[in-house]
Amino acid sequence: MAAWKDSVSRFAQNAVSKSKEMAEVTRLNMEIGGLEQRIKENHAALGRYLLERPELLPVGDPKVDEILGQIKEVEAQIERDRIAIRELKNIELCPQCGAEVVRGNRFCPQCGSPMAAAQQPSQAEPAAAHTCPECGQLLDEGAIFCGNCGASVKSSQ
Predict the structure, then answer these.
(1) Are 21 and 29 in contact (CB under 8 A)?
(2) How is the chain split into domains, by residue range?
(3) pTM of the prediction?
(4) N or C, where is the chain less crowded by C-beta within 10 Å?
(5) Which of 105, 129, 131, 100 has its CA nearest to residue 116?
């Protein structure tokens, strides 16, 4: 009977030891993962730093040229996707402040700047509770200026 108790005791001690070992291995693996993430973040920061200072990049290095070309391709795709989103949302960007403006507004509802290629708004738009006190145009939610005539509308809402 004593041999059986010793055997169970050794098994339990071995299990506890293995559990502690696995917990420590897991902790160390998580620490390594965090450190590897910090390295990736530092690589990205270094890359951004160098891209902001092209005079520091090696001239004529084929690998640098390849990476810069890939970055330009990705940036171009991002811009194409942003344009497609604006088309789907029927908006354009204000040339002054960059706010999203409903296509057809003659003025930006955020800064009041005239829109470059404003189209006349559709006459089929429904009446709303928030309209411009100057021209009666339907106002965008949160508008500070009328998108049609440029009048300040902040106090009218």
Answers:
(1) no
(2) 15-57, 58-89, 90-157
(3) 0.52
(4) N
(5) 105
